[in-house]
């Protein structure tokens, strides 16, 4: 059982480049989330989705975009990468929203913007 | 008012000892308080969670103590083992509201 799969695991980007972080889950979860994790800062919610075709902003959405065309996939798009976007990005999913069920996380994408 | 403050930032405990990590919150509407465990190179995984209708929840060597009046909750790891070495995050939430995460505690258990 794969759970939540994120690709790539590592990536180095130059300032101004763009890329898509991929996330797919095989648990048929309606809720999916994108977080960024910075040292000493905990996790910050970037975007979330409550089902296919429905997305909404989290706490730190600037510089990112998402789409949710299927239940399984929830890609995160970085446009015009900036050094402030250097971070570890985690995708997660849950069967119910936020405060009701555990979130299942992927192993993260470590992104450096140089 | 949406912060969750976690302490200490790092903690070293001898094998067999008790590890204690504390969290405090401000929003009295929060009603779900999970703890997540994260190993290096991995995503966080739910360890144990509590709701404010109970003051304590125990699962094996892991216990959450909850003090509603003080708006504090803590994780106790009994008989700490080297395999418990990880980063621990507390969080708080309520229905239809995002999880608010603490900053994390890096726990090292010395053999």
Distance between the termini of chain A: 36 Å
Q: Largest protein interface?
A: A-B, 23 and 25 residues
Briefly note the CATH topology name of chain A: Immunoglobulin-like
CATH superfamily of chain A: Immunoglobulins
pLDDT averaged over residues of chain B: 94
Unreliable stretches of chain A (pLDDT < 50, length at least 5) are none
- The unreliable regions of chain B are none
Taken as a percent bin, the fraction of beta residues of chain B is over 45%
Residue share in β-strands of chain A: over 45%
Order of helices and strands of chain A: EEEEEEEEEEE
Mean pLDDT of chain A, to the nearest integer, reads: 94
CATH superfamily label of chain B: Immunoglobulins
| Secondary-structure class of chain A | mainly beta
Instruction: Give a short account of the largest sheet of chain B.
Output: 6 strands, mixed
Question: What's the total helix number of chain B?
Answer: 0
In the CATH hierarchy, the architecture of chain A is Sandwich
Helical residue percent of chain B? under 10%
In whole angstroms, how far apart are the ends of chain B?
40 Å
Rg from Cα of chain A: 13 Å
Please name the defining characteristics of this protein:
heterodimer; A: 114 residues; mainly beta; Immunoglobulin-like; 7-stranded mixed β-sheet; 4-stranded antiparallel β-sheet; B: 111 residues; 6-stranded mixed β-sheet; globular
Descriptive account of the structure:
Chain A is an all-beta fold and 114 residues long. Chain A has strands at 4-7, 10-13, 19-25, 31-37, 43-51, 54-57, 64-66, 76-78, 87-94, 104-105, 109-113. Chain A has a single domain (4-77, 86-113), classed as Immunoglobulins (Immunoglobulin-like, Sandwich), CATH 2.60.40.10. In chain A, strand 5 (43-51) and strand 6 (54-57) form a beta hairpin. The N and C termini of chain A lie far apart (36 Å). Helix content of chain B is 0%, strand content 53%. Chain B has no helices and 11 strands. In chain B, the strands form 2 sheets. In chain B, strands 2, 4, 5, 9, 10 and 11 form a 6-stranded mixed β-sheet that branches. In chain B, a hairpin with a 7-residue loop joins strand 9 and strand 10 (100-101). The chains are: A mainly beta (114), B mainly beta (111). The A-B interface holds A 4, 40-45, 48, 58-59, 90, 92, 97-100, 102-108 and B 4, 6, 9, 31-32, 34, 41-46, 49, 89, 93-99, 101-104.
């Amino acid at each position: 059982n794969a759970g939540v799969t994120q690709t790539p695991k590592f990536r180095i980007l130059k300032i101004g480049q763009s890329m898509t972080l991929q996330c797919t889950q095989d648990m048929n979860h309606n809720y999916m989330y994108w977080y960024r994790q910075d040292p000493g800062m905990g996790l910050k919610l970037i975007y979330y989705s409550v089902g296919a075709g429905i997305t909404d902003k989290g706490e730190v959405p600037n510089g990112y975009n998402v789409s949710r065309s299927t239940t399984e996939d929830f890609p995160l798009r970085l446009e015009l990468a900036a050094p402030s976007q250097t971070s570890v990005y985690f995708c997660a999913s849950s069967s119910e929203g936020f405060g009701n069920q555990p979130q299942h996380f992927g192993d993260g994408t470590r992104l450096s913007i140089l | 008012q949406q912060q969750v403050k976690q302490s200490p930032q790092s903690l070293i405990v001898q094998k067999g000892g008790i590890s204690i990590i504390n969290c405090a919150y401000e929003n009295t509407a929060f009603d779900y308080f999970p703890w997540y465990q994260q190993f290096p190179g991995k995503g966080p995984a739910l360890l144990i969670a509590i709701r404010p209708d109970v003051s304590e929840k125990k699962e094996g060597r892991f216990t959450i103590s909850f003090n509603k009046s003080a708006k504090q909750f803590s994780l106790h790891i009994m008989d700490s083992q080297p395999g418990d070495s990880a980063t621990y995050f507390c969080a708080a939430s309520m229905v239809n509201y995002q999880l608010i995460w603490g900053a994390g505690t890096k726990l090292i258990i010395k053999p």
